[in-house]
Amino acid sequence: MSLSFADLEHLYQLPFNDLIREAHELYKHHHAVNTIHLCGAISIKTGNCPEDCAYCPQSVHYKTYVSKAMLSDPNDVLDIAFYAKTLGITHFCLGAAWSYVPNGRAFQKILEIVRKVHSTGLQVCCSLGSISEEQAQSLIDAGCTTYNYNLDTSPDFYTKIITTRTFESRYKTLQMIRKSNLKISCGGILGMGETISDRLKLIYLISQLSPQPEMVPLNALVAIEGTPLGQKAFIDPLEYVRIVALARIAMPRTIIAMAAGRYKMSFETQALVFFSGANAIYIGERILTTPTPDLNADLDMLEKLGMNAHAYNIDLRQ
Ligand code: SAM
Ligand code: SF4
Questions:
Q1: pLDDT confidence of residue 67
Q2: Which residues of 5-15 are buried (b: 16+ CB within 10 A; e: fewer)?
Q3: Distance between CA 114 and CA 136 in Å, rounded?
Q4: What was the pLDDT predicted at 1?
Q5: What phi and psi, each to the nearest 5 degrees, are found at residue 150?
Q6: Whose CA is nearest to atom 9 of ligand 1?
Q7: Cα 87 to Cα 181: distance, rounded to the nearest angstrom
Q8: By C-alpha distance, which of 156, 265, 278 is closest to 220?
Q9: pLDDT score recorded for residue 147
């Protein structure tokens, strides 16, 4: 049974321990709590994006450290995919700084990249901006299993963060992708100056997708110099834990991923986040263009917590 917005507001008021205990109980019921899904995310087309997302170093509107790069060579991506496998990664995300996927040669190259990565046995996830129904089907045919399309924040706060598209158009495309045979990865960013109510609305709207998304990546804003949010302080870590716990209660069967910003969180915060129901992390050199923690520190952390890498094969469409 899906939770109402009022249910989420009520849960948010609970004392911290009660909230995370409730989240953990549900988590334990639906998942193997000492296993974690290891993900990788690389950028296959970097920078020069026409959108003006205020957090993003890849927007053409801001001057940041990101150097632009054209669409990657499929064989180079294949090499990285093989390397990712050696790290224990099972879910591999290909990100592109586009507002929508152009048809023609670029899309044919994307399909070649997807086919090559799929041939390694990795689960392929694409995050390429808006797509059409036909493109969704071609991606499936090439071996893509999941599409990442984040809502990022609440409808009310959206206009303060992005002016080049609307929340409504994003949500409509998301619903179209949900109807395709692609699994959905849909999350957001916390710590951009939004209110608690904006955070709850984001989780509420994501949880209302039917079926719920297979994966929800929760990013903590990495404030990047040159972007309008470049001076924002990092989110209060316990607040991040609370939102993960709420997401777990609202979406008991979903994989919840700690995404960007994890490198700024202590080992102890991460342990609390895992207790509260997060069961995926991105490892490797980078998550698209933002840093990840040192790989050895990550492997050390998982060993200390007694957590093993595990390939979930989840599908909430049935
Ligand atoms: N262009 C495509 C799109 O917007 O759907 C895909 C790539 S985009 C870089 C993927 C996601 O990265 C965004 O939706 C956002 O959630 C996340 N992201 C980008 N910059 C970030 C930052 N500075 N801090 C945290 N998350 C960020
Ligand atoms: Fe472009 Fe995606 Fe960055 Fe927005 S988040 S500027 S759409 S790459």
A1: 85
A2: eebbeebbeee
A3: 12
A4: 67
A5: -85, 145
A6: 97
A7: 28
A8: 265
A9: 97
- In this structure, the strands spanning 290-291 and 91-96 are unpaired
Whether ligand 1 lies within 6 angstroms of the CB of 151 is answered as: no
Q: What is the 3-state secondary structure (H, E, C) of the chain?
A: CCCCHHHHHHHHHCCHHHHHHHHHHHHHHHCCCCEEEEEEEEEEEECCECCCCCCCCCECCCCCCCCCECCCCHHHHHHHHHHHHHCCCCEEEEEECCCECCCCHHHHHHHHHHHHHHHCCCEEEEECCECCHHHHHHHHHHCEEEEECCCECCHHHHHHHCCCCCHHHHHHHHHHHHHCCCEEECCEEECCCCCHHHHHHHHHHHHCCCCCCCEEEEEECCCCCCCCCCCCCCCCHHHHHHHHHHHHHHCCCCEEEECCCHHHCCHHHHHHHHHCCCCEEEEEEEECCEECCCHHHHHHHHHHCCCEECCCCCCCCC
Q: How far is the CA of 1 from the centre of ligand 2 (A)?
A: 33
Dist. CA 26 → ligand 1 center (Å): 29
Ligand nearest to the backbone CA of 94: 1
Task: Choose which residue among 64, 150, 206 to substitute to test ligand 1 binding: the one with the highest number of ligand atoms within 8 A of its C-beta.
Answer: 150
- Chunk the chain into consecutive blocks of 10 residues (it has 318) and report each block's average pLDDT, rounded to whole numbers: 92 98 97 93 94 96 90 93 90 95 93 97 96 96 97 97 96 95 97 98 97 97 96 97 98 96 95 97 84 87 87 63
| pLDDT recorded at residue 286 | 82
Say whether the peptide bond before residue 211 is cis (omega within 30 degrees of 0). Answer: yes
Amino acid at 65: Y
Neighbour-count burial for 210-236, b at 16+ CB within 10 Å, e otherwise: eebbbbbbbbbbbbbeebbbeebeebe
